[in-house]
Design a protein that fits this description.
By secondary structure, the protein is α+β, with helices and mostly antiparallel strands. The protein is 23% helix and 31% strand. Strand 3 and strand 4 form a beta hairpin.
């Protein structure tokens, strides 16, 4: 996991996805959101090869990539990486100016830890 600043276009996409997630939230989703005010929204997806140091760190086990250990791990540059932006769902504002690069994510609608924050994982907001 690493931190990165989102481009304005990525922040805008993530905010639209947050709105979509909140608009479609079920009673179960709302109960889970009562446990934490934060929601992690996917703004972009890239590959580990697009981040110069990431493939090397995955290959040496310094970055958690549990969902990819069962695959042929010889080519770490093709591992998908999600760029998540965290919002406070009560105010719909950014929790931090930085987003988080993540390989392993929990199931959509469950709580995970992202960049030191506990947040509900919204994925792409059900688009």
């Amino acid at each position: 996991m690493a931190l990165a600043r989102p481009y304005p276009s990525e922040a805008l996409i993530a905010q639209k996805r947050l709105h979509n997630f909140l608009a479609r939230a079920t009673a179960r989703d709302r109960r889970i959101m009562e446990q934490t005010p934060y929601v992690a929204v996917q703004a972009y997806e890239l590959t580990a090869g697009e981040v110069p140091w990431l493939s090397h760190r995955i290959g040496f086990g310094k970055i958690r990539a549990v969902s990819h250990y069962a695959n042929d791990f010889a080519e770490t540059s093709n591992v998908p990486v999600k760029f998540l932006i965290l919002f406070d769902h009560r105010t719909e504002r950014l929790v931090s100016p930085d987003g988080v690069l993540v390989i392993d994510t929990p199931s959509r609608g469950t709580i995970g830890k992202f960049g030191g924050f506990r947040a509900v994982y919204a994925g792409t907001g059900w688009w």
